[in-house]
Fold this sequence. Notes:
By secondary structure, the chain is α/β, with parallel strands linked by helices.
Amino acid sequence: MQRGDSAPPNVVLIYADDMGYGDLHVYGSNLSTPNIDRLAAEGVRFTNWTSADPVCSPSRASLLTGRYPTRVGVPRVLFPKDKEGLNLDEQTLADLLKARGYRTQCVGKWHLGVTPDYLPTKRGFDHYFGIPYSNDMTPSILMQDEQIIEQPVKLDTLTQRYTDVATKFIRDSAGSPFFLYFPHTFPHIPLAASPRFRGKSPLGIYGDTLAELDWSVGEVMSTLQTAGVASNTLVIFSSDNGPWYQGSPGKLRGRKGETWEGGVREPFIARMPGRIPKGRVSNSVGSMMDVVPTITKLCGAPAPKKPVDGLDAWPLFTGAAAQLDREPLLYFDDTHLQCARWNQWKLHVSRYNHRGYSPAPAGGNKNLLLPKPELYDLGKDSDESFDVADMHPEIVSQMLAKIETQMKTFPDAILHDWEETKLRKVSPTAAGALPRSID
């Protein structure tokens, strides 16, 4: 079968919450994650795949649209009191696959709007079961479609119940192509695990939680096999952003909420027997924004009406290409551009003067242009420790020019913030430090 044939493949997209790059055994962790390890052994594992944003809502908005969060109305984390969400004129991956005749189900954390028009059932999903935002937010509610069925949520059995709903959807979808979007609530805090897993990991409740998540992946894979659809199903496993208070970014610098690699580089595994070679490890640069164009092309679904920022990454999945020819990947903190990734290069151009763990400076929190851009060679320096801007001025110049060109394509409010950042005067700072305003 070729891509786009009349019998499109099924798609299962499993998305952890706040899982670090170094949390999985196959990525170097001491935790045991045998089912996810097996997924990697049967497909391709990426070492340079990144989220479009280091926090929950924006990263999910990009995953499901293929566009930067600053284009689609979700530059920041959404809260239960917010009346808006992912812009209603944006098409989600579920919208596009549903137009191809897919059955669609979302199980887990949504976090792209909680009022009726923004819920999954209005954004391309036939059914929804899950918590509509983070599990540390109140009110604590569990929803089925558009109805609240539990308040507060019993977190210790949540992964089990998610898995029951997800596997039932797979069994019930026999004979029809299906898209299962399975964004887990954990390991976002507060952490919880069922009695079967509680206290069983040598690394505490975080380990317990990940062990149960790994079990869930195994249940999904087993159900695909028994339903006879495993060979025609693309399974992707990843996470939305880096780890928060617990968890490991591996050898990467930074954590959730930061645009250092530890906040945006994610585990990313893709499996499809006979289509994706087994046991591949790819160092190719990929973005969560690539998921929409890759899957829509693979499944013969209509392309989004709006231009996407991601690329069709199928050649990276199969090994047909070593890299994609792409513009720099931009990383924002809320509406403010922070840095860009281009091949092995990471260029930091601005930074907030306060990150919450030090006293706020006089005049409040501001995003400031760095006195000198900082350039890091991620091929040699994955923890962004050594600024090599002075050694590669031509790379700095090229990337700055590309950034300026790209920024002109963003909404006026985003471009305005960028222009305002460039006008602020700052004092000299060491590489990697928080800049200080002299306004």
